[in-house]
Amino acid sequence: MELLLLLGLGAFGAVTSWIGLSRGGHAGRVGAILGGLSLLGMVAVAFLLNAPRVGSGAIPEGVGILDGRLIPNNYMRIVIALWALDGALIVCIAWLASGLAGLRGLLPAMLVSIVGGAVAFAATNLTLGAAAAGATGLVSLVVLLAWRDPSSIPASSRELRATVVSTVLLIAAIVVAPLAAGLRIGDTTTSGSLAGPTPTPGVAALVGLLVLAIALAVAIRMGAIPFHLRVPKLTDVAPPIALPLLLAWVPVPLAVVGLATVDLLLAPLALPLGSEQLIIVAVAIVTLAGAALAAFLQDDLRHTTGYLVIADGAFVLLGFAALTPDAWGPARTWLVAIAATKTALATWAAVMEGRFGTRSIPELRGWIRRSPLLGAALLVTTVATFGLPGWAAFEARATLAQLTATPPLDSVLVVLAFLTLPTYLRLLGVGTGSPTSRVDRAAPERIVRRRTERLAVEVERTTADGATVPTAAADHGPHRTPAHRVARHSGDMASKGAVSVGRRFTRALRRDATELTAAAVLTLAVLAAFTAWGVLDIGGAASEPAPITTNAASD
Amino acid sequence: MTPALVILAVIVTVAAVIATSAHEPRFAALGMIVTIIGAAYVTEPLPGIVALAARLAGSSLAGYLVWVSLRGAPPPTAGWQVGWPGAAAVAIVAFAIGWLASGTIGNAIVEASGGATAVGAAAALASGSPVPRAAFGAALALTALAAAPVLLGRDVLRQGLGLLLLLAAVGLLRNVMAVGTDGPVELALAVLTALTGAGVAAIVARSLTVHGDLDLRPAGRGDGPLQRDAAHPRPWPGMYGPYGPRRRSPAPTPGAHRDLRRSKRPEPARPEPPSKPGGQGGYGAGWPGTR
């Protein structure tokens, strides 16, 4: 029933926030509060979810909903909790940066996407999971069409096309796969293994086409080269704070269902599909190298972010090229890791753009001097992206490379994964230069070294007998100019005039928006680092069989 | 029942031809509605009442939303350039290929699976039942018809209708393969269809609101955000230095910005100061004319 509560909370919050924020005013505030509370409730429910180990035969009665079609599992619990936690922080940042207007479209889309992702992860049927994953992809329209911007129309059309085409490809592959393998429908997974006769070479060709179709669906959804053109255009149009959702999280359910399809229906056949594997690996290599190069050459921060997401997403394709059930765990681990790390990166980019008023990387020179917290966030994000030996993300990447290719190509793949490192170093290096005028006039974080010198003014005082004696030194402290005094008093007076406690509280929060947004980005980066490290046994949860691959209700 | 289902498959294909080739937006939408509603029922045997209701609800809702978004008589669109004869030809060829190939495919699947274990679609196709054949032909026809609007569409309505036709095609493929008619799965597919229809309707409505037509306008040179923002001053940073050609301001166009200010009054002649002392006009004898 906790799963039902999770889905209900998300649906309720999405509907109320969508209606309220569309109307604005008091309804907008109420909708935002209800949506935010729903999001926090989803975080709590996800952490408290009773998620048994799937595949061990220990699923207690009453855990699933919809007559056992949706069964919570450990991987779903962790991913949804992380997704909701990241979402709550992103929503908080959006509100601090733009007020309620910044939540319009973002908050309902975030809640709906989490609901769709939960259904996809908990599904016991491949078609059900694919439909949920496809519906999750449609949330980009909620974000893009929230405002009456002409440029959002072609972007929405591209997103709709990518979502529907990838979903249709995946469902078609799911439908054809069991028959192509000559398997009896419904009997494929009763014992956890495929029980059909040995397929003929003709079927092998068909199975190869199905593998390519599934990989194509995921490649379209993740923006792999040559389907990458929509990503920079999307980053141009979408609100930057919504990019973590659209680029990092929305493709995850479809990729997981695609992996489940390969793992359940195609990989166990152990067919000789060398040509298909070569094609997928080639696409992955081209995407890794091309996207890393494009990210390095770009001067636009949003485009750089988009290409970094594409480059890391290419490693997911290796999970399809491996064509072995052993790739199930590492691929799902890598999916969570890139979602967490790219969320931190995209949020960092959004906050940087809002803080300094530009998305041009050359104009951001010296940004670390102005925003040390954001600098720390990018540093932690970089570490989380590449990981360290022993970390879950690092091992997942190495395992995927080893499962996909034989030496020395596996080492080449691992090295290719580090091609994005120069881009991160460039971003960090740009931040250490001398600040540009844009950076110099941006609001600083308060964690800067204050000047300690005091301006002591000695004022002479005339006594009654006409003698002049010096008074005590008038120490004006750091607020020695009118501007400083105004700045000092503005903090005290920021919440004055508010008619309610809530408004005074929100004004007091927004007074420190600069520091709070930077702290939130740093928190996202730390979460990403924990994810890449493998806390909560993410690697183990990802390696477990999922309901979608173990339940008899699968197609 | 079987002939009716085959006829329904033909009707679905004809409606798809209308959806892709009609110039009138509402006529095209009507074709799409008939297609997605009818495609859900080209199956043998018919699924349970829950699955049927879910399919009907999802398809109807998607079609209704698109229909409503086209209220206000939007202007006719270009449609598919090959016209309805071309679209009909494509559909007929694809339908025929599907019809003729379905038996062969069924036999191949049966042989591949060992012959004895084929169930569902494999058995139905191999036995020569006309309904799966018609459904397969219709699925191929819908896919062929939807390919052009989806891949090359310059019209938000055509692209959206093409995507809905693709969803209908994959539904037909499920009917062909006789994949189980599980209630929740059917409900999920119905929700996906309805949400896709809602997405198409939202884009169409927004396009009509903003542009007044249904044309898909890609960001052109000098108009898109790539050209508008300051992040791309030059194609290759550093090649041209700080004052590259893209940074220079365009040449002035006097015709477009005429100088409408009044002409200045002529400045009065200023007397020359004396250059030497004494005498007429000399230094120390005062300014000329003040004597």
Q: What descriptors fit this protein?
A:
heterodimer, A: 555 residues, mainly alpha, two-stranded antiparallel sheet, two-stranded antiparallel ribbon, globular, B: 291 residues
Give the gist of this structure.
Chain A is mostly helical and 555 residues long. In chain A, 67% of the residues lie in helices and 2% in strands.
Helix-strand sequence of chain B: HHHHHHHHH
Runs of chain B with pLDDT <50, length 5+?
Answer: 220-230, 232-239
Instruction: Assess the beta-strand content of chain A as a share of residues.
Output: under 5%
Report how far the terminal alpha carbons of chain A are from each other: 25 Å
Largest sheet of chain B: none
In helices, the fraction of residues of chain B equals 55-70%
Largest sheet of chain A: 2 strands, antiparallel
Number of strands of chain A: 4
Computed CA radius of gyration of chain A, to the nearest angstrom = 26 Å
Structural class of chain A: mainly alpha
How would you characterize this protein structure?
The complex is a heterodimer of chains A (555) and B (291). Chain A is mainly alpha-helical and 555 residues long. In chain A, helix 8 runs antiparallel to helix 11. Chain A contains 25 helices and 4 strands. Chain A starts with a helix and ends in a 5-residue tail after the last helix. In chain A, a hairpin with a 5-residue loop joins strand 2 and strand 3. Chain A has a two-stranded antiparallel ribbon. A two-stranded antiparallel sheet of chain A has the order 2-3. Chain A is globular. Chain B has 291 residues and is an all-alpha fold. Chain B is built from 9 helices and no strands. Classes of the chains: A mainly alpha (555), B mainly alpha (291). At the A-B interface, helix 5, helix 7 and helix 9 of A face helix 4, helix 7 and helix 8 of B.
